[in-house]
């Protein structure tokens, strides 16, 4: 039997290509090395948050406070660095620990006190926003003193030297080829279905090309952005956690059927609290990167980012009811959302229209997915 | 049967992608006839009634359906409805928060001046219930009714629509014996009024009690149509499985060892502050033994197992001991570690994650067994373990990656059993392990129970089917309203006596 790539998984790729083609025609600068480098940084923040969102959506919950959390954690770290003059690594670590504790506590409230995640994190959205504005006293707090650099500001301003970037790209491709080939061999030995050789090669080839293309383009500008490397690491870690650890299995089990999971001996409370704890860590990371990207903590940093994260997950095939979703899907969804925002910004579209366009694309994407799923 | 048949199907074929669900079903339903459909799960019964009910639309199958001699082309359930065919599925299509009357008249409420005429709604509902000879309060909310009564609401809905063909899919799966009797009587009365009925059930005694003819489906084909009055159960079973079945209950006794589970003077309430529902429960199960627990629905069987497994109720007094260790307040996770496993009654609710694969389930309850010291799951090791379970349980599926939601009931049950077995339990609690699964799979479950006891494990078998209880248990307790009577020895007790105990008669006798 010849395996065909189902139209459903292709549809988002086609959508992405159409979106890119549209912007490339309307605004040729879209395809410039500089813009694509910036896009990869913007993507990194959106995608990292979306990966965290995946961890809480899988067990059937949601985090509406992620955007406010981005603003707050970035602000806390900025204040520690700029006002209190603490070393940046210490500030980042403290802010991250704080986020893990707070998000873990939200998880505990959800699963122990049986308050819906929607409500708890909606409360979080408001509280964190208020705290964020309190912390920065409605001012602009830079992440580093003017003209200097620290690890905080470097998060989104450091670029890998071209030679290192190229080496890293090649290493990633090699690892991709090796792991996919060994997984394929294993699946054949298990008697599972695999793609035929041609499709398998094509998938690998396209994947490898994308990675190398990214490195090549980035090297034409300043090199591979550190942010993209961080995204790669977070994506890999999230993939391993969800697919290769007991905790990951539990995430799917709790979201798929909580009662059955309980009877099966799944530690539901630990799983949900763990998912939110990790979300806290990711919110902190996203917060540092987003704040660094803006150069300073202001009252608008992170605003509404939780919705982009949810949208990226949903476009990538994650179920809001839990139990369904994958890392590659989420990255793809984030790519669509980030590309859209970047392109619209290039075209100097007004913020009003940007919101409307993103909303329409989200609804459209899910509609197409539902239509194709029914086939 | 010289009259024109009310409904026929000829050479029906239906496929879902690569899977052939029906490959030649010829079936005929006479006016005023009750015609039973028998067959193992996956034989094609559900697919057939979905074609008849317009759920799988015309154009998606080959062959012909006729209603009163005319070719029928149902494109929607509404078309089937209009042709007088009403299908009552196991999963009822009622809105729990609404009243009986609202549910009956949901789609066509009497309107006056643009608003719903509530007086007319209740009056019309009363008329429908009268006509259907069903005694229900139209103002009661559906959620306040038992499963049996809810089913009656669905039936009344069909009668209200003047349906000429009533299709009942496993209508008694969740009913008490009394409710079953009432339902069968109702079907017979409709039959006298000229309504035809297609009756689908795994319970052959009901099938014989109510039907005129029996059509057996196997592997998507209609095998034979039998005259119920001239046929024996064994013949139907033979056609269903396609082979002879000598012994339905192949219980092999094993030598009882030390007690593995001891329950002493147990009193358990549903919630704190309430009177205990389970009262004075007292028994022990030894290694190598099967303890049967019977009783009607709601007698406390499931609650007893769920309590022992740490997911139901608040204990007032008494104790549960698992292999010498006190069990109180532990989570299912801890109990699984200690060697107790539960296979619950409601597979889809408590047993399975329908969107996940077979392999996902088999190791879920003990992932520690396949996790390396670095925290990652060892794929090869896991696959080995899963493959062994998959083969030894004879799960019928393409491979371990098959999603369990697509499996038949029997295979789903094997997955749930496999999930419990992988934890290596000393005590296995089985709550209705053969409900809704076909004869072949049932026997495999029985064989599994034999294997467990031969390995020195203790099994508690909860069942509503008395022959199963008598055939598979070494000792039997019967629950009635949370109190136990027994033990009964299967060799010394009749079905009648067990039934009496289940209805509370035995305890009265003991008390007097």
Q: Can you summarize this structure?
A:
By secondary structure, chain A is mainly alpha-helical. Chain A contains 15 helices and two strands.
List keywords for this structure.
heterodimer; A: 375 residues; mainly alpha; ABC transporter involved in vitamin B12 uptake, BtuC; 2 domains; two-stranded antiparallel ribbon; 75% helix; B: 512 residues; alpha/beta; Rossmann fold; six-stranded mixed β-sheet; 22 strands; globular
CATH level 1 name of the largest domain in chain B:
Alpha Beta
Structural class of chain A: mainly alpha
Shape of chain B: globular
The structural class of chain B is alpha/beta
What is the count of distinct domains of chain A?
A: 2
The fold-level CATH name of the largest domain in chain B is Rossmann fold
What's the helix count of chain B? 18
Q: What is the CATH topology of the largest domain in chain A? A: ABC transporter involved in vitamin B12 uptake, BtuC
Strand order, biggest sheet of chain A? 1-2
- State the CATH architecture of the largest domain in chain B: 3-Layer(aba) Sandwich
Which parts of chain A are unreliable, with pLDDT below 50 for 5 consecutive residues or more?
Answer: none
Question: Which parts of chain B are unreliable, with pLDDT below 50 for 5 consecutive residues or more?
Answer: none
Question: How do the strands and helices of this protein lay out in sequence?
Answer:
The complex is a heterodimer of chains A (375) and B (512).
Chain A: H1 7-26, H2 33-57, H3 66-82, H4 88-112, H5 117-135, E1 141-142, H6 151-157, H7 162-190, H8 197-220, H9 226-244, H10 246-256, H11 258-263, H12 268-294, E2 296-297, H13 305-315, H14 327-346, H15 351-373
Helix pairs in contact in A: 1-14, 1-15, 2-8, 2-9, 2-12, 2-13, 2-14, 3-4, 3-5, 3-12, 3-13, 4-5, 4-12, 6-12, 7-8, 9-10, 10-12, 13-14, 13-15, 14-15
Chain B: E1 7-16, E2 19-29, E3 34-38, H1 45-52, E4 61-67, E5 70-72, H2 77-82, E6 85-88, H3 100-104, E7 111-112, E8 115-116, H4 118-131, H5 147-160, E9 165-169, H6 177-192, E10 196-200, H7 204-210, E11 213-218, E12 221-227, H8 233-241, E13 259-269, E14 276-286, E15 290-294, H9 301-308, E16 314-322, E17 325-326, H10 332-338, E18 340-343, H11 347-351, H12 358-364, H13 379-392, H14 409-421, E19 427-431, H15 439-454, E20 458-462, H16 466-472, E21 475-480, E22 483-488, H17 495-502, H18 505-511
Helix pairs in contact in B: 12-13, 12-14
């Amino acid at each position: 039997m010849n395996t065909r790539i189902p139209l459903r998984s292709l549809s988002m790729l086609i959508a992405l290509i159409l979106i890119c083609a549209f912007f490339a025609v309307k605004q040729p600068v879209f395809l410039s090395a500089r813009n694509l480098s910036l896009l990869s940084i913007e993507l990194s923040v959106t995608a990292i948050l979306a990966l965290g969102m995946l961890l809480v959506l899988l067990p059937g919950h949601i985090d509406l406070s992620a955007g406010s959390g981005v603003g707050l954690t970035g602000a806390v770290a900025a204040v520690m660095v700029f006002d209190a003059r603490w070393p940046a690594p210490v500030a980042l670590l403290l802010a991250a620990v704080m986020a893990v504790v707070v998000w873990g506590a939200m998880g505990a409230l959800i699963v122990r006190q049986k308050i819906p995640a929607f409500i708890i994190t909606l409360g979080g959205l408001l509280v964190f926003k208020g705290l964020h504005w309190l912390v920065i006293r409605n001012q602009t707090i830079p992440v580093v003193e003017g003209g200097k650099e620290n690890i905080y500001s470097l998060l989104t301003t450091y670029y890998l030297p071209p030679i290192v970037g190229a080496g890293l790209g090649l290493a990633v491709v090699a690892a991709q080829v090796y792991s996919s080939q060994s997984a394929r061999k294993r699946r054949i030995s298990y008697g599972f279905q695999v793609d035929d050789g041609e499709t398998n090669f094509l998938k690998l080839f396209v994947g490898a090309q994308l990675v190398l293309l990214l490195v090549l383009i980035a090297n034409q500008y300043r090199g591979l952005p550190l942010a993209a490397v961080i995204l790669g690491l977070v994506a890999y870690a999230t993939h391993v956690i969800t697919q290769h650890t007991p905790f990951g299995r539990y995430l799917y089990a709790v979201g798929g059927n909580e009662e059955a999971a309980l009877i099966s001996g799944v530690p539901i409370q630990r799983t949900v609290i763990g998912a939110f704890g990790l979300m806290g860590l990711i919110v902190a990371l996203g917060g540092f990167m987003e704040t660094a990207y803006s150069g300073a903590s202001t009252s608008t940093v992170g605003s509404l980012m939780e919705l982009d994260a949810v949208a990226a997950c949903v476009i990538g095939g994650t179920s809001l009811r839990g139990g369904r979703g994958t890392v590659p899907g989420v990255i793809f969804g984030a790519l669509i959302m980030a590309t859209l925002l970047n392109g619209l910004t290039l075209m100097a579209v007004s913020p009003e229209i940007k919101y409307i366009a993103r909303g329409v694309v989200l609804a459209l994407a899910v509609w197409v997915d539902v239509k194709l799923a029914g086939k | 049967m010289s009259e024109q048949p009310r409904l026929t199907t000829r050479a029906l074929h239906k496929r879902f992608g690569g899977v052939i669900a029906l490959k030649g079903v010829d079936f005929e339903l006479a006016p005023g006839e009750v015609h039973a459909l028998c067959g193992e799960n996956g034989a094609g019964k559900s697919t057939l009634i979905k074609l008849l009910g317009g759920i799988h639309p015309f154009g998606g199958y080959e062959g012909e359906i006729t209603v009163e001699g005319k070719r029928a082309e149902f494109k929607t359930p509404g078309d089937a409805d209009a042709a007088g065919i009403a299908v009552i599925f196991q999963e009822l299509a009622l809105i729990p928060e609404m009243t009986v009357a609202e549910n009956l008249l949901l789609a066509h409420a009497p309107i006056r001046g643009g608003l719903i005429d509530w007086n007319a709604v209740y009056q019309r509902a009363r008329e429908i219930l009268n006509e259907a000879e069903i005694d229900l309060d139209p103002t009661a909310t559906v959620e306040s009714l038992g499963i049996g009564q809810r089913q009656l609401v669905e039936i009344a809905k069909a009668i209200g629509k003047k349906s000429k063909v009533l299709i009942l899919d496993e209508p008694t799966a969740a009913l008490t014996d009394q409710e079953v009797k009432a339902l069968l009587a109702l079907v017979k009365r409709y039959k006298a009024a000229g309504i035809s009925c297609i009756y689908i059930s795994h319970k052959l005694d009901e099938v014989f009690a109510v039907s005129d003819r029996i059509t057996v489906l196997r592997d998507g084909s209609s095998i034979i149509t039998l005259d119920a009055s001239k046929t024996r159960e064994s013949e139907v079973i033979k056609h269903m499985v396609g082979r002879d079945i000598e012994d339905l209950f192949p219980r092999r006794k094993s030598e009882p060892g030390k007690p593995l589970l001891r329950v002493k003077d147990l009193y358990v309430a549903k919630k704190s502050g309430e009177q205990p529902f389970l009262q004075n429960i007292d028994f022990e199960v030894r290694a190598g033994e099967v303890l049967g627990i019977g009783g009607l629905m709601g007698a406390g069987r499931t609650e007893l197992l769920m309590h022992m497994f740490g997911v139901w109720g608040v204990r007032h007094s008494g104790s549960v001991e698992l292999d010498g260790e006190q069990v109180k307040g532990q989570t299912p996770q801890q109990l699984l570690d200690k060697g107790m496993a539960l296979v619950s009654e409601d597979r889809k609710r408590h047993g399975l994650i329908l969107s996940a694969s077979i392999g996902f389930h088999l190791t879920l309850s003990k992932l520690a067994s396949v996790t390396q010291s670095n925290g990652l799951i060892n794929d090869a090791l896991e696959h080995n373990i899963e493959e062994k379970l998959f083969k030894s349980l004879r799960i019928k599926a393409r491979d371990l990656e098959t999603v369990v939601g697509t499996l038949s009931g029997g295979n789903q049950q094997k997955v749930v059993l496999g999930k419990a077995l992988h934890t290596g339990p000393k005590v296995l609690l089985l709550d209705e392990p053969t409900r809704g699964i076909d004869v072949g799979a049932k026997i495999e479950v029985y064989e599994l129970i034999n294997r467990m006891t031969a390995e020195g494990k203790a099994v508690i078998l909860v069942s509503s089917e008395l022959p199963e209880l008598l055939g598979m248990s070494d000792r039997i307790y019967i629950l009635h309203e949370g109190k136990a009577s027994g033990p009964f020895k299967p060799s010394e007790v009749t079905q009648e006596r067990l039934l009496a105990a289940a209805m509370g008669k035995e305890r009265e006798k003991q008390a007097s």
